[in-house]
Write a structure and sequence with these properties.
The chain has 798 residues and is an alpha+beta fold. The chain has 22 helices and 22 strands. Helix content is 47%, strand content 17%.
């Protein structure tokens, strides 16, 4: 093989195999590698079902008192534990900091089959009230805060103003399941706490469903047996609660829940990058087929000397396998670099992303792919050479014979195949891009431009009283309003796209009051100027203000108004708020709906309350929203300084422009779309090179024919059209096949789409035009060269 061909082939293989190895490393980590817990197949998430609420909430998290009953009465469970995500203020040393952690039952580590590398795990009695002031810290936090000091065990750490004894350090390899409240992506947990008794609001059997519950089945117990036993216990709990609702249970494999909806997207990416490697193979096979005439004389001589066809095929396969192994070796290096880049760039929604690495399974995958690749693109040319007739090849006086019609047809079929595959990839990538565009254009209900969001968490030891919290928020707002260029500023307990919180019932006077019949809404304490600062439009009435102090009034979202007072003016109406004690409240205003959780989720019903509404309406954590006259990023430092000046012990938990928050909310869609588009455009480039090579080689092989036609008076335009027609024929066939394949494949990614159908005509038409234009250009360049053949020069060699 020529050095130029060898270098090109090895580089193409290295990129193709390396990309496949990198993506497979992520798929292996997320989908194939078992969870790093003891017997993970025995672990199941336990969810609760209230049939009367199933329309709004198909399943619910676990209730703490119910969990205690399960521990005693569900005998199919070897053990069951609960956990919830939590945050805590770290104070006493240096800059105040908010730590992310987990509050869990004391048996959580025993159930998962792990233990601290230093110190001990929780004891069962530390779940009891007043006995849980102990803490286990994560390895990364231990290294950063305590410089890996092994003497940290027994030291005190002040969390939320309360000293806690450090009793353990978890292993560096330990990952707490995100489904149980653990961190995902680049976020990190800092600590674990025991329950330390139920909180005041966690005592009811049909009350707060706040905890993620995980159960380990006993050896020999099946999911069906455990679920049947759990439902018997749930029915007994519902009867004991006497709240007029039923209770059921649900068991979901923990592993499936950890992977979640990312499975289909990851498999799609693996298929896309595999398609790119397939196109690489097709191109190399086409290049080798172009070299078949030149090797037929060599094969004829070997055959005359006694070589069998099998030996000829083995020889050529040995050459292609050597190429693929060399490409695979370089590809492993490229994959290791690409994997670090992908982990840094990828969305945090990809499960177990931080665990991705190249292990033995990945290396075996690379080896298998290298062997398969070498065999795939080498077998067809080897078979064509071995099938040649030695006598015919030896009759030629030249080292290279002319390509026969069968080989040319084979190369054209390969071109059609790669064009079809490229069309399929481009359509699917185009659908994902159109979906992301629709999502970013969706009306979120607020104005993100020029808005800055700053989150704070008030230390409980200083701000235990609602009045103190309200004073702090009002002082900060007063100083923020005085900053030059600030047009509006307000605070809210949870900003848009910040998730749900304080979800409870709302009704109107005279409506049924049972749990089963009361709709639920998200309650949000907010300041008067929050709505103008966030750009949420006022549709009717007014916003509450200082003159309304001590009045029970609320502002509701449009969906609440339409739900309870359709066709009526909601201003002045009375609603029964069930956030805390049932309280009748007057509606004084209606504002627009907002996207609360994600842009692709429908708006939820919202009830906004003033800080004086009840004892919990001045929250311990909130977000300030500052609307500026220009780029909000330049206000980050002044806003932080305002908060530090008022109270240096209050940590700023987040500080980001609202546009960045909106952008990050779609990272889970942007990352697969971006990779799919890179793979699709790469395949388009490879297909264009394949078309160019086939047409160019065909022109080179037919120089004599073209020269004779021109000598006999053929029109140059006719020659150009002839070459273009022959070059575009397999392209048109492949394009049509690819469109048909995309129509069926679009159904497979329909769950990844938003605002577009899997048969979006604009996407299909755009891809068809793009592929057609690129293919035409790839055909036109060698076709144009064919018209410049000098017939006298060509015929002189005859």
């Amino acid at each position: 093989m020529s050095p130029a061909f060898t270098v090109i082939a090895v580089l193409m293989l290295a990129v193709g195999i390396g990309a496949n190895t990198a993506i497979f490393s992520i798929v292996n980590s997320a989908l194939l590698r078992p969870l790093a817990y003891s017997d993970p197949q025995q672990l199941y998430l336990v969810r609760e079902i209230v049939p009367q609420l199933a329309k709004f909430y198909p399943t619910l998290s676990a209730n703490l008192p119910n969990f205690r009953i399960w521990q005693k009465e569900v005998h199919s469970f070897e053990d069951v534990a609960v956990a919830e995500s939590t945050e805590a203020d770290l104070s006493g040393t240096g800059e105040p900091e908010v730590l992310r952690g987990v509050r869990a039952s004391a048996n959580i580590f025993e159930l998962l089959g792990t233990r601290p590398t230093l110190g001990r795990a929780f004891r069962r009695e530390e779940d009891e009230p007043g006995r849980g002031n102990v803490i286990i810290i994560a390895d990364a936090f231990w290294r950063s805060r305590f410089q890996s000091d092994p003497a940290v065990i027994g030291k005190s750490m002040t969390v939320d103003g309360v000293p806690h004894e450090i009793i353990g350090v978890m292993p560096a390899s330990f990952r707490f399941p995100p489904a149980l409240g653990g961190a995902s992506g680049n976020a990190r947990l800092a600590f674990f706490q025991p329950l330390n008794g139920p909180k005041p609001y966690e005592g009811g059997l049909i009350g707060e469903f706040d905890f993620a519950a995980v159960a380990r089945l006993k050896p020999g117990a099946t999911r069906e047996q455990a679920l049947a036993e759990l439902n018997v216990v749930q029915a007994r709990i519902a009867k004991q609660a006497n709240e007029g609702v039923d209770l059921l249970g649900a068991l979901w494999p923990l592993e499936a829940e950890v992977v979640g909806p990312a499975r289909r997207g990851l498999i799609f990416l693996l298929a896309a990058v595999g398609a790119v490697l397939l196109i690489v193979c097709v191109n190399l096979a086409s290049l080798l087929l172009a070299r078949v005439p030149g090797r037929m004389r060599e094969a004829a001589i070997r055959t005359a000397l006694g070589a069998t066809r099998a030996r000829l095929i083995r020889q050529m396969l040995a050459e292609t396998l050597l190429l693929s192994f060399t490409g695979g070796a370089i590809g492993i290096f490229l994959a290791s670099v690409a994997l670090k880049w992908l982990v840094h760039l990828a969305a945090v929604s990809i499960p177990r992303l931080d665990e991705a690495h190249m292990d033995a399974r990945v290396l075996v995958f690379t080896l298998v792919v290298s062997i398969g690749t070498g065999a795939f693109f080498g077998l067809l040319p080897a078979w064509r050479v071995a099938r040649s007739q030695p006598v015919d090849a030896l009759k030629s006086g030249r080292a290279a014979a002319t390509e026969d019609r069968r080989t040319r047809r084979l190369r054209e079929c390969l071109v059609g195949f790669e064009v079809g595959l490229t069309t399929l990839l481009l359509v699917l990538a185009g659908l994902l891009m159109a979906s992301l565009g629709q999502l970013l254009r969706v009306h979120a209900g607020f104005t993100a431009e020029n808005a800055l969001v700053a989150g704070v968490s008030l230390p409980p030891q200083t701000y235990s009283e609602a009045e103190a919290r309200a004073r702090f928020y009002n002082k900060v707002l007063a100083d923020l309003h005085s900053l030059p260029g600030v047009r509006a500023a307000g605070w809210i307990s949870i900003p848009p796209l910040g998730g749900e919180g304080s979800v409870t019932g709302i009704s109107v006077p005279g409506a049924p009051q049972t749990h089963a019949e009361v709709p639920v809404a998200n309650y949000r304490p907010a300041s008067t100027d929050y709505f103008s600062a966030m750009g949420i439009p006022l549709l009717r009435g007014r916003i509450f203000g200082p003159a309304d102090r001590d009045r029970k009034i609320v502002v509701v979202s449009q969906s609440v108004a339409e739900r309870f007072w359709p066709g009526k003016n909601p201003v002045g109406q009375i609603c029964i708020t069930k956030w805390g004690p049932d309280v009748p409240a007057e509606v004084v205003g209606v504002v627009g709906d907002i996207r609360t959780v994600r842009l692709d989720d429908a708006p939820l019903m919202m009830v906004y309350v003033p800080e004086w509404f009840n004892s919990i309406s001045a929250p311990s954590s909130a977000s300030f929203v500052v609307r500026a006259a220009s780029d909000p990023a330049i206000y980050a430092a002044p806003v932080r300084e305002v908060i530090r000046r008022i109270d240096a012990d209050v940590p700023v938990t987040a500080l980001s422009p609202m546009k960045l928050i909106v952008s990050q909310s779609v990272d889970g869609r942007r990352f697969p779309m971006m990779l799919a588009m890179v793979f699709a455009l790469s395949s388009l480039l490879l297909a264009a090179l394949g078309i160019f090579g086939v047409v160019g080689y065909s022109v080179e092989q037919r120089r004599q024919e073209l020269g004779i036609r021109m000598a006999l008076g053929a029109n140059l335009a006719d020659l150009l059209r002839m070459v273009l027609r022959e070059g575009m024929a397999p392209v048109v066939l492949g394009l049509g096949t690819g469109v048909i394949a995309a129509i069926f494949a679009g159904r497979l990614i329909s769950s990844l789409l938003f605002g577009v159908t899997a048969y979006d005509p604009f996407t299909f038409a755009s891809v068809a035009l793009l592929v057609g234009a690129v293919a035409f250009l790839a055909c036109y360049i060698p076709a144009q060269r064919a018209t410049k053949v000098d017939p006298m020069v060509v015929l002189r060699y005859e």
